[in-house]
Each structure stands twice: as structure tokens, then as C-alpha cells.
Design brief:
This protein is α/β, with parallel strands linked by helices and 1311 residues long. The strands form seven sheets. The chain has a 15-stranded parallel β-sheet with strand order 3-4-5-6-7-8-9-10-11-12-13-14-15-16-17. It has a seven-stranded mixed β-sheet with strand order 31-32-35-34-33-36-37, sandwiched between helices. A five-stranded mixed β-sheet has the order 22-21-25-23-24. A hairpin with a 6-residue loop joins strand 29 and strand 30. The chain is globular and about 105 Å long. It comes from Microthlaspi erraticum. One of its GO terms (molecular function) is zinc ion binding. This is SWIM-type domain-containing protein. Keywords: Metal-binding, Zinc, Zinc-finger. InterPro entries: F-box-like_dom_sf, F-box_dom, Leu-rich_rpt, Leu-rich_rpt_Cys-con_subtyp, LRR_dom_sf, LRR_FXL15/At3g58940/PEG3-like, MULE_transposase_dom, Transposase_MuDR.
């Protein structure tokens, strides 16, 4: 960077120092006086260096040095800008104004990185387009946290940067359209990496290669942490040149995606699968890619030996195999032996958490002769025998890593004579291996590099040319100090050297110090014996910067026995200084910012000196010092009184796996027992209707694996005596042992086996130094046999376990419960099961009574939270009678945007209530369900329907029903109420209910087809033809069906006002699909319905905001179907917008008249009824001139995207919990009496009077049961066969016919 100017010979030493450390680089050929008689010539010696050489020198400088050099002179600034090919920018919105001048200087950039932190606003589409216009030669782009960039910006960026070869995006908000644009325009794209792309959701379009896209250039795809990564399936499966595929921590089922990939792509050579929901089906699909050379299967618990065997048998070219079994024991010797048998080219094998034995390792060592790198980590079955086998058989092994395995010095000794090509050995976390064996092995094999845990604990410096321990040097005397080789230089990488030093002095990690000054400063600190922790807490007065660090919190999880944090979620909570980092501040963040309970306050961490040992935090000082040193700190938080995730997520029983019920109990407080957290996902159907799996506010389900059950141990701690007893109950049921209490006191519990000769015994007492209960003595051996009895399994414990079963199935009997327990080899008397059933019923009754008593308060809270809503509660005295609710937001949405059609239906409440739930739903512009109002009444009859419709008509302004359409089943009370209140409304009958009633007398596949063909007819003549065909087939069935036409159930009789052609009442039925909500107490049920409506409407609102185009997706999809059918139409123009369209398909020739001017219409009536142009209109528009030819312009205005947004623009208001409700009245509402529903139970016949004859069947047919078939005396056959079917000449037909008439007249059935 220039040379120092020369000076006269008379200059003294001070001047010499000035010349050495004060370079002068100026141009102009003048003289400069430096003082003290020193005069130098003003000359730039670097001016003679060509620009190319100067640029080449700049390439070897670090980022900081290169920035400083660019400020020396204009020439260096120009050379640096013209030859800088890599550029990384802080992509905040504030730099937008500087982009033009910045890229005027750096116009040769080919590799660009744009990063923006979470707290800042990132660059927008305009800035991205500006960058792409300035940097046309970009080949690599990385976007991180650019949340303001949309699909439009990415599309314009792709148009400008057509030479792009590598794209990496993360934490951005654009979606599938932006990715598709990059694939369409960047035809040279070779690598695509996508991480946390928030714009890709469930409704996102598929990502696939366009015609003529980058199919011939794309080589690698990496998908990380995506919610809906399955949209990349068409891209991955259709890219024939794909070599590398990495899928890491993406949600959803990936088996189907991998099956498509395996069927369509044989060029894959490298596959990474990490933390995915992949089973053996996915691995079997991967095995079809026979060219795979590298395979990583990391923490995929559903993969087992079977899938690995398929991969090994077909992928014979496999060279690198990484398996992290996550200690699930699903991959073991069987799969590894298949690898040894078929993958003979294996060069690298990594096994983590895989319990392999000497059998599989010996097979691998013998067959895989090219194996050079082997890593065995976290396996409890790999010991000295396995290591000795590897040492004996693996002749080509060069690098060997052993970590966390029960290996001793004997196994390491075997490596002294085995593995002749071994150059590096790493032994970590093997507690039995000593440091002496490492020294001995180095002496035996001097070319072998041995790395062990003991090596890292000794920090070495060079003293007088010899290595010496740091602690010894600090107390030693004399000797010169030389900078350590690891600090001063050597062959090691400079970046790693600096990182090692900064790990010692983390508080200076952010300072801009060179390697040499930093290293010298480190040695001086060692010599001065300065306390690093104390020095870390001091601020840098020179720079004015305060010591701070980033804090990350893992919350909501629990600790496993081996100090692993299971479950939970990670959160970045902000930046802290040492002064701000207090225990109270962290607990406030956990409760208020993250929303956890107050008892979530037990903090732990892993110090850097012991990274595998969990340490509970008592004071925050040490954590703060380490956080400042390393720039970040991570804390792990669990409940103070209970480390289980199940305490926060709630208790929800599962009927599919009873073992979970016995192992997990909400009352347990054992510090040593742990379980895995399994959370049920939520989903909804395609039409946006309510389904049983839709999002709800129930507690998450907690599953506990059998392997997580922990045995009793001496010294084990429990929170309370009750929690210890609960653990005893679980032990008794799990082990099926009959345990009883010998002593049960407030401070002591002694339990023994009920068999007097059995030695099993346990004693637990309260600890003297803490309130916890500690196991003092334990004899865990049982010598008794199982007798099928568990005395600790009381009726209350049974009711706690199976309360969910009773809640979902009110008819669950004591006998069924007894059989369920007996299936678990537990014999419980019927009387105890009956008491358990009655105990559940009492709990439910108490819940109902409490919630009925607060109904008036609930009504007040709903009205306060949702102004303009109609909520009415009717009581008879104090007894509940009726309830009605219609929220103001739903009223506004229906009036503003929904078609004038209502679906009405009623359903029974499931649990200990005889009442009915009445509902009214509409259809939004996207033809999805829009709930409007619901109510609870005593029964489904005319007065109750009249009361419900009166409120509904008042809320929606229906008046007498002009222009209104109602759809319902054939409920008589509803029909009468509609005729009375809404006489001018069109009342449609649900065709499915009409068919179900008609089917009771007339069943058969042909009749069913004839019925639905008539129901789907759009015009009356077509309907009459279908009915005539039915009459020709069965006249009686035709006559019965004609009776039901007093209410329309066919499209032929639908009016044009509702623009809805649905013949079924599915929307009303879908609302009634909330089975679980109907099993809850009344307030919980109403709140569950309200929350489901909120979740469903919010989801539809987001979809409406993202909707593109003028019309809704459902309307466009229906129109596309008609456009597809238009290819079979032959339009003939008559002028003035009149056409005659012939529809020809399957030898059917139908002809219709179409009008396109003034008012669009077609004689087929599909457009009139549904509002969607039919295929005849779509085909005629092709010939129309002077008019808009796009069929979308003819779609009814009820289906516009603007109306869809207006439908959901007003959200419902949030409601407080019951504990915050205001007490509005002293009246305590009581629940109505519960009894058997009216009417005869299904399947039960009426008891007939003595001598009463059975009713004659209406269809004229007699039953065959109990009738003796008379025989012909001549032929001994049945009468019908004898008279009509016999060809025997000996049969007297006249005689048989006469007997036939006699028997028929007497009422005898002839067979």
C-alpha cells in the first residue's frame, strides 16, 4: 500500500520511526516538509503498478483491509470498485437512495448478498429492480430477511438477471409465483435454495418448470423449514438433470413427493433428508434412483431397516451414507448388513444414535474395502469388541471418529496395530477412555493425529522454545514469552486462529483488531493475570460501545434423562446489556411476550467449558459474561413445579392408544419421568366448511412412549406426596402389579406388594432440606406372579383415565369399560366400572350446572365484545328454554356480499341434553359456507322454528321473503314456519333427503341414476323426459316421486334470484359436523362454535386478500370446466348476438339458443340458475365481434373478488374467559331436565295387543318368514314353478291352477 518516503542521512532515530510508521502517498511531484529538518519527495511508488496487478493484490486482502485501502486515493478506489465481484449489503430500506451511486462504482459485481434484520424494514421491489438493472452480470444472489419483496419484484428481477446461476432465499414473503418467474426467465439457473419462504402456504400454486425453462441447467435444490414444501414436487420430479436434493425440517408428509421423484428422476446423486415425516415408503422410492452416491437420513424416526434395505439393494453406487437414528432403534444390524452386502463402493459412513453391533460392523469392514471415513456416535452397543473388529478388518480406513460410545482403553489399544492407513483419530465423550491411552497411541504411531477430550483442557504456550501448560507458566518464573503458534501464525487457517482467540476474549469479538495486535494483547493479558470475566463487564471507553449480546429462549419443553431438551420452541427475544440482564426481566418476557404461565420460570443453560452438562441458573452474572463474550446466550426454560410439557398443553385423552393414558397423568410431579410431545394438526376441507379436524382451542394431545417410562431409583425426587402416589399408580398399572400401602402419612409413604412373600418394597419421605419427596429405599425385585388385580386402580382413577371416552360416547357402558380393561389383562369388577361411569356423569352434570348458571353473564359479554349483535336467552322461571345468537359482523357480511340464499338445518346435542341446535348458513362469493346465526331450542317443531326465523328475518331484513331462497330438509315444522313467516320465499328441498325418503320404498342402482339425472336437469322439458323414463321403468316409483314435487328439488324449477344451482343442503349439514363441540357443556359448546367461525372466517379473509383477478377462484374453476366442454359445441350465428349452438358428444345432439346482446341468456338455463356462463355461451363468444370475447366478463357480479373481501372485512370481537365475566343478575339459570328422547327407540317394535293382526304391507308384498311353502301333490314342486315353468308332460296343469286359486283366495303365499 505504498512505501515510506526516504529521508536525509542526518535524521535521528525519532525521524526514522516517523518514516516507518507514517507513509505519505500523494501525487503531483512536489516536496513536503515533515519537520525536524526532514524533507521528502512527494511521489507515489504504487503508481507504476498496473491496475491488473493492483486488483490482484486486493483479492488477497480481508474485507476491512480492502475497505481502508480503497480510501487511500482515487485510483485505488476506482480499481477496487471495478474489480470487486462479491458484495454484501445490509438491505435496509434506508440505503435505497444510495443504490444508484453504489452500483455505479461496483458495476462488476457477480455475487450479491442482501441481508436485513428482523427489526428493520427491508428493501422493496423498486430497489430490487434498480439493483438488477445496474448489475446485469449477476450469477449468484442471496436474499435474507427481505420481507418487502413481492412476487412482482422477483419477476422483474428475473427478467433483468437472465445469467443467474445460483439463487438462495430465506425469510422472505414472496411466494410460488416469484419462484416460478425465476425458473421461467433464468434459464442458466443451476442451484436453488429456499428457506422459510412465508409466501408458500397451503393454497399456493405449484412450483414447476415452464416450457423451455431451466430444465437442462438446474443441478441442486435445497428446501429448508418450509410449511408447504410439497409445492416443489413438480419441479423436483420433472428436472431430469437434478443431481443434489436437500430437504431439511420441512413440515408435512413427504412420502408421496419422494415417490413421484423416484418415478421420474434417475439422475439424482446426492439426497439429504433431515427431520422430515418420511417413512420406509419414501426410502423405497429413493431406491429407484440408482445413481445415488450420497445419502443423508437424519432424525427421521419413521424410517427403519426395511427402507434402508431397499436403498442398499438398488443403490449400489452409494459412496457416502449418513444415518442419525435419533435413538429410535428402528435402524440396526439388519439394515447395515444389507449395506455391507450391496454397497461395495462405500467410502464414508456416519452412524449417530444407531445401535449397531459387531455383526454389522464386521460385515461392513470386510465387504466395503474402500471405506476411508467412519464415525460412530451416541451408540450404546458399540464397545471394545466392535472397535477391535474395525481395527482388524478396515485396511483402507483413514479417518475414524468415536463419540459418546462405551469404549474403553482396550478398544483404543487395538488401533495401534490395526487400520494401517489411519491418519486421524478422534475420541470424544467416551468417559472410560483416559488421556494416557492417547499419549501411548501417539508414541506407537507417530504419524497418527489423535484428538481426545483431555487435549482440549490444556491450553499451551511456547516458553523458550518448549510447550508448557498455561497454569504452570502463570506460576513459573523467568523465561521469555513468545506468541503461540496457534495465535501468531503457522500453517493453520488465520480465520480459525482469530476465532479461537476471540472465544477467549469474547468481549472484544466485535472490535476491529488485526491478528498480530490481538495475539500480542492476549499474551500480555495472560502474563498480567487479568480476570477475563471482570474485564468483560467493562465498557470500551474509547469506542463508546456498550457490552451487549443476543438472547435466545427455548420455552415450553422438558428435560430428558440424558439432559436433552425435548419439545418446545425457540424465540429470539432481543439484545441485552449486562446491566439489563436480570432474572425478573427474563421472567417478564416469558409471561407477557411469549404468553406462558407464571410457573414457567426454571432456567438452565450449557456453559462453554462443559457443553454437555446442563446447569440450573441461580444468578445471571455468569450467563451475562459468557453472553457478552460469545455475542449470544441461549437459555432453556421449563415449569418450576413440573418439567412436563403436558402441564401447559392440557390433558386430552386418546382412545386410539390406551397406553398413553396409563403412562401420562396431569397430576404427576415426578422430576425423573419424561414424555414426547405430539401435537395434532388442524385441517379444513376444500370448500372451507367446518370439519371435525378444523382448528379449535382444545388442549393439545400429549403422547408418551413406553420407552420414556422411568423406573424407580433411590434418590429420585417428587414434588409432593400425591405426585409420588400417582407415580405408584402408574407403575402398578404399567407393570400390572398389585401394590398396597403399608404406611401412608403426610411425610412418609411405604408401599409393598400385596403378596406377603414378595420382597418388593419402596419407601419415600419428605426431604429435610426441601419440600420435595425423595425415594429412600427400594427393593425392586418381584417374585410373585400376575393375578390380574390392581388394587390401586380405584374407580376415581379409572374415571380420570377414561373420561374422554365417556365424553365422546355417552352410551359407553360399564360392561364396555370392563372389557376394555380386561383387554389389558386387568380384571376390574363390574361394580367398580359402574361407579367410574357414574363418577364421570356427576362431573359432567357439575360442568353443565356451572355453565348454565352463567348464561346471562355470557350473553352480556357477547354483546359487549360484539356491538350490533343479537343475543337472546329465554328462560321459563329459572329453567333454560331457548338461546339465539347472530353476530353483527356476520349480519354485515351477508347483507353486503352474499347471495340471497339461506341453508337451514337442525341437529341433536350429544351429551346429557335433549335440546336441538338450529343453524342458518349462507354462501359467500367463493361458494363456501358463511355461518350467520345459530340457536338452541327444546325440540325441532313449528313454534321453535317460527321463533328462530322471526329473529333471523329481523336481523337480515328478510320481510316476507321476496327474492329469497331457502334450502332445507323435509322437516315438517320448518316447512310450516317458512310458509307462515316467509310466504314469498323460494323453498328448496334437499335432493339427498328426498331420495333417502323415496329410497325406503324404491331402491336400486337404476332408480338412483334416474332420480339424480332428473334432479340435475336444468330445464323442464329435460326433467319431464327423465321422469318419463322413470315412469317407463317403474310407474309406482314415478307416482311416489311426483308427490314430492310440491317443493322444488330439481334445478329445472329453480329461480334465477339466488344464482345457486346446488340441489343438496350440504352446507347446513357441514356446520352440524362439529361432533366434538356438541359433546361439551353448553358454554364450551357455544364458545367452540364461535371460535371455529372466527378461525374459518379469518382463514377465508386471508385467502380473499391474496386473491388475484376480478372473480373468485371457485367461479373461475367452474367456468374453466364449461370452457373445456365448449370444444364439443358448434355455434351458428344468426346476427345481432343470436346463436344456435349444437352440443355433440357421445352420439347426443342437443341444440340451444344463445343471446349475447342486451341480456345474456341460454335456453339450457345453466347460466340463469348458477350465474356461470355455460359451454354454449363460451363457444358463441368466439364468433362475437365488437363484444368482449372473454367468458369471464359474463360471470355474475355476485362472484367478484371485491365482494369476497367485503364479506370478511369485518371480524368478530374477542371474548374474555368466564373468570372475567361481569355478574349481571342474581338469577341462576338451571339446565332443563334430561331424559330419554321422545318416540320409540329405533329398531324397537310396538307391543301388540292379544289377537291383534299384523298390519298389511303397503306395497302389497307379504313377508316370506314363517310361511310354509305348499307343494304340488303331482310333482312335489312349488305351485308357481309347477304351473308356469315346468315342462313335464305328466303335470296336470288344470289341477295345479285350481289349487293355486284356492290357496291365493285363502291368503296363503305361494312360492
Amino acid at each position: 500500500m505504498g512505501q515510506a518516503p526516504s529521508s536525509p542521512a542526518e535524521s535521528n532515530g525519532r525521524d526514522m520511526d516517523l518514516r516507518l510508521w507514517s507513509p505519505v502517498i500523494v501525487g503531483g511531484g512536489e516536496w513536503m516538509y515533515l519537520g525536524n529538518g526532514v524533507t521528502v519527495t512527494d511521489r507515489d511508488f504504487s503508481g507504476e503498478i498496473p491496475d491488473e496487478c493492483l486488483a490482484h493484490v486486493f483479492q488477497f486482502l480481508g474485507a476491512g483491509d480492502r475497505k481502508r485501502c480503497s480510501l487511500v486515493c482515487k485510483r485505488w478506489l476506482f480499481v477496487d470498485g471495478q474489480n470487486r465481484h462479491r458484495l454484501s449489503l445490509d438491505a435496509r430500506d434506508e440505503i435505497f437512495s444510495f443504490l444508484t451511486s453504489m452500483f455505479n462504482r461496483f458495476d462488476s459485481v457477480t455475487k450479491l448478498a442482501l441481508r436485513c434484520d428482523r427489526k428493520s424494514v427491508s428493501l422493496s421491489d423498486e430497489a430490487l429492480v434498480t439493483i438488477s438493472a445496474r448489475c446485469l452480470n449477476l450469477t449468484r444472489v442471496k436474499l435474507r430477511g427481505c420481507r418487502e419483496i413481492t412476487d412482482l419484484g422477483m419477476e422483474e428481477f428475473a427478467r433483468n438477471c437472465k445469467n443467474l446461476k445460483k439463487l438462495s432465499v430465506g425469510s422472505c414473503n414472496f411466494g410460488a409465483k416469484g419462484v416460478n418467474a425465476m425458473l421461467e426467465h433464468c434459464k442458466l439457473l443451476e442451484e436453488l435454495s429456499v428457506k422459510r419462504l412465508r409466501g408458500i402456504h397451503e393454497a399456493a400454486e405449484l412450483i414447476q418448470l415452464p416450457a423451455g425453462g431451466s430444465s437442462s441447467s438446474l443441478r441442486a435444490i435445497c428446501l429448508k423449514e418450509l410449511v408447504n414444501g410439497q409445492v416443489f414436487e413438480p419441479l423436483v420430479s420433472s428436472t431430469k438433470t437434478l443431481k443434489t436434493l436437500k430437504i431439511i425440517r420441512c413440515l408435512g408428509d413427504w412420502d408421496k413427493v419422494l415417490q413421484m421423484i423416484g418415478d421420474g428422476n434417475s439422475s439424482l446423486s446426492e439426497i439429504h433428508l433431515e427431520r422430515l415425516q418420511v417413512s420406509d415408503l419414501g426410502l423405497s422410492a429413493i431406491s429407484k434412483c440408482s445413481n445415488v452416491e450420497t445419502l443423508h437420513i437424519v432424525k427421521t424416526p419413521d424410517c427403519s431397516n426395511f427402507g434402508l434395505i431397499d436403498v442398499a439393494e438398488r443403490c449400489n453406487l452409494l459412496r457416502k451414507l449418513h444415518i442419525d437414528g435419533w435413538r429410535t432403534n428402528r435402524i440396526g444390524d439388519e439394515g447395515l448388513m444389507a449395506v455391507a452386502k450391496h454397497c461395495l463402493n462405500l467410502q464414508e459412513l456416519v452412524l449417530i444414535g444407531v445401535n449397531a453391533t459387531h455383526m454389522s460392523l464386521e460385515a461392513i469392514a470386510s465387504n466395503c474395502e474402500k471405506l476411508e471415513r467412519l464415525a460412530l456416535c451416541g451408540s450404546v452397543t458399540i464397545g471394545d469388541t466392535e472397535i477391535a473388529c474395525i481395527a482388524k478388518k478396515c485396511g483402507a480406513l483413514r479417518k475414524f471418529c468415536i463419540k459418546g460410545c462405551p469404549v474403553s482403553d482396550l478398544g483404543i489399544e487395538a488401533l495401534a496395530v490395526g487400520c494401517p492407513n489411519l491418519v486421524k483419530l478422534k475420541v470424544k465423550k467416551c468417559k472410560v477412555v483416559t488421556g494416557e491411552i492417547g499419549e501411548w497411541l501417539r508414541e506407537q504411531r507417530r504419524t497418527l493425529v489423535v484428538s481426545m477430550d483431555s487435549d482440549e483442557t490444556e491450553a499451551m504456550v511456547v516458553v523458550d522454545g518448549e510447550a508448557e501448560n498455561l497454569e504452570e507458566r502463570r506460576v513459573g518464573q523467568g523465561g521469555g514469552v513468545v506468541v503461540p503458534e496457534s495465535v501468531a501464525g503457522g500453517n493453520n487457517n488465520g480465520g480459525s486462529r482469530l476465532a479461537m482467540i476471540r472465544s477467549k476474549l469474547g468481549f472484544l469479538a466485535a472490535r476491529n483488531l488485526g491478528s498480530w495486535p490481538f495475539a500480542i494483547f492476549w499474551v500480555l493479558l495472560v502474563e498480567a493475570e487479568i480476570d477475563f470475566a471482570r474485564l468483560a463487564s467493562v465498557t470500551d471507553d474509547r469506542s463508546g460501545l456498550e457490552m451487549s449480546f443476543e438472547l435466545f429462549l427455548w420455552t415450553g419443553g422438558y428435560w430428558s434423562p440424558d439432559d436433552r431438551y425435548l419439545g418446545g420452541e425457540s424465540s429470539r427475544v432481543g439484545t441485552f446489556t449486562v446491566e439489563e440482564f436480570k432474572m425478573s426481566r427474563v421472567q417478564l418476557i416469558i409471561t407477557e411476550q411469549l404468553g406462558y404461565e407464571d410457573n414457567m420460570k426454571k432456567l438452565s443453560w450449557f456453559p462453554s467449558e462443559t457443553p454437555n452438562t446442563k446447569v440450573d441458573i441461580e444468578t445471571m452474572n455468569k450467563v451475562a459474561h459468557y453472553g457478552v463474550g460469545f455475542g449470544a446466550a441461549t437459555l432453556y426454560v421449563v415449569c418450576e413445579d413440573d418439567p412436563y410439557i403436558g402441564r401447559r398443553t392440557g390433558w386430552n385423552t386418546s382412545l386410539e392408544d390406551d397406553e398413553n393414558l396409563w403412562l401420562e397423568n396431569p397430576d404427576d410431579g415426578n422430576v425423573g419421568e419424561h414424555g414426547d410431545d405430539s401435537r395434532d394438526g388442524n385441517s379444513s376441507d376444500e370448500a372451507g366448511n367446518f370439519t371435525e379436524d378444523e382448528s379449535s382451542c382444545d388442549g393439545r394431545r400429549t403422547n408418551v412412549d413406553d420407552k420414556s417410562y422411568k423406573r424407580f431409583e433411590i434418590g429420585q425426587e417428587y414434588m409432593t406426596i400425591d405426585s409420588f402416589k400417582s407415580a405408584l399408580h402408574k407403575y402398578a398399572v404399567k407393570k400390572r402389579r398389585d401394590i398396597k400401602y403399608k404406611k401412608s402419612e403426610k411425610s412418609r409413604v411405604i408401599a409393598i406388594c400385596s403378596n406377603g412373600k414378595c420382597p418388593w418394597r419402596i419407601c419415600a419421605t419428605i426431604n429435610s432440606s426441601s419440600p420435595r419427596v425423595v425415594v429412600r429405599s427400594l427393593q425392586e425385585e418381584h417374585n410373585c406372579t400376575w393375578q390380574g388385580k390392581v388394587s390401586l386402580l380405584t374407580y376415581s382413577r379409572i374415571s380420570e383415565i377414561y373420561i374422554g371416552e365417556f365424553r365422546l360416547n355417552p352410551n359407553f357402558s360399564a360392561q364396555q369399560l370392563q372389557e376394555k380393561l380386561l383387554a389389558r389383562n386387568i380384571n376390574v369388577p363390574w361394580s367398580k366400572c359402574e361407579r367410574s361411569r357414574l363418577d364421570c356423569l356427576r362431573k359432567f352434570d357439575r360442568e353443565q350446572d356451572e355453565q348454565f348458571s352463567r348464561l346471562f353473564d355470557y350473553v352480556y359479554e357477547l354483546k359487549k365484545a360484539n356491538p350490533g349483535s343479537t343475543v337472546e336467552l329465554v328462560v321459563k322461571g329459572t329453567e333454560f328454554e331457548k338461546f339465539y345468537v347472530c353476530f353483527g359482523a356476520l349480519k354485515t357480511g351477508w347483507k353486503a356480499a352474499c347471495r340471497k340464499i339461506l341453508h337451514l338445518d337442525g341437529t341433536f346435542l350429544k351429551w346429557r341434553m335433549n335440546e336441538m341446535l338450529l343453524v342458518a348458513c349462507g354462501r359467500d362469493p367463493n361458494d363456501q359456507m358463511f355461518p350467520i346465526a345459530w340457536g338452541i331450542v327444546e325440540k325441532e317443531n313449528t313454534p321453535n322454528w317460527r321463533w328462530f326465523l322471526e329473529h333471523l328475518a329481523s336481523d337480515l331484513g328478510l320481510e316476507t321473503g321476496n327474492g329469497l331462497t331457502l334450502a332445507s330438509d323435509q322437516q315438517k315444522g320448518l316447512i310450516a314456519a317458512v310458509k307462515e313467516l316467509l310466504p314469498f320465499a323460494e323453498h328448496r328441498m334437499c335432493a339427498r333427503h328426498v331420495y333417502a325418503n323415496w329410497k325406503k320404498r324404491h331402491s336400486g342402482a337404476d332408480l338412483e341414476d334416474l332420480f339424480w339425472s332428473a334432479a340435475d336437469s336444468y330445464y323442464p322439458l329435460d326433467f319431464e323426459r327423465k321422469m318419463q323414463a322413470l315412469k317407463d321403468y317403474d310407474a309406482v316409483a314415478h307416482a311416489d316421486l311426483r308427490i314430492s314435487l310440491w317443493c322444488p328439488w330439481s334445478r329445472a324449477f329453480f329461480t334465477e334470484y339466488s344464482k345457486c344451482d346446488a340441489v343438496e343442503n350440504n352446507l347446513g349439514e357441514s356446520f352440524n359436523a362439529i361432533r366434538i363441540a356438541r359433546t361439551k357443556p353448553i358454554v364450551e359448546m357455544l364458545e367452540e362454535i364461535r371460535r371455529r367461525v372466527v378461525v374459518s372466517n379469518d382463514k377465508k379473509r386471508l385467502e380473499a386478500e391474496k386473491a388475484k383477478g376480478v372473480y373468485t377462484p371457485r367461479a373461475v374453476a367452474l367456468l374453466d370446466q364449461q370452457i373445456e366442454l365448449a370444444k364439443d359445441c358448434r355455434p351458428l350465428g344468426f346476427g345481432l348476438g343470436k346463436y344456435e349452438v349444437t352440443y355433440v358428444k357421445n352420439e347426443v345432439h342437443d341444440r340451444f339458443v344463445v343471446h349475447l346482446r342486451n341480456k345474456t341468456s341460454c335456453s339450457c338455463r345453466l347460466f340463469v340458475v348458477s350465474g356461470i356462463p355455460c359451454c354454449h355461451i363460451a363457444s358463441s363468444l368466439r364468433l362475437e365481434r365488437g363484444e368482449e370475447q372473454d367468458p369471464k366478463t359474463r360471470i355474475s357480479q355476485w362472484f367478484t373478488a371485491d365482494k369476497l373481501r367485503a364479506c370478511y372485512c369485518t371480524p368478530l370481537g374477542p371474548v374474555n374467559g368466564m373468570n372475567l365475566w361481569k355478574v349481571t343478575t342474581g338469577l341462576r339459570v338451571t339446565r332443563p331436565p334430561f331424559g330419554s328422547p321422545g318416540g320409540r327407540p329405533p329398531g324397537k317394535n310396538r307391543t301388540r295387543e292379544k289377537g291383534e293382526k299384523k298390519k298389511e304391507p303397503e306395497n302389497g308384498k307379504m313377508p316370506k318368514l314363517g310361511i310354509t311353502m305348499p307343494k304340488c301333490s303331482h310333482c312335489f314342486n312349488g305351485w308357481i314353478w309347477c304351473c308356469f315353468w315346468s315342462n313335464d308332460a305328466n303335470v296336470d296343469l288344470q289341477h295345479c291352477l285350481m289349487l293355486f286359486v284356492v290357496h291365493v283366495s285363502e291368503g296363503i303365499m305361494v312360492m
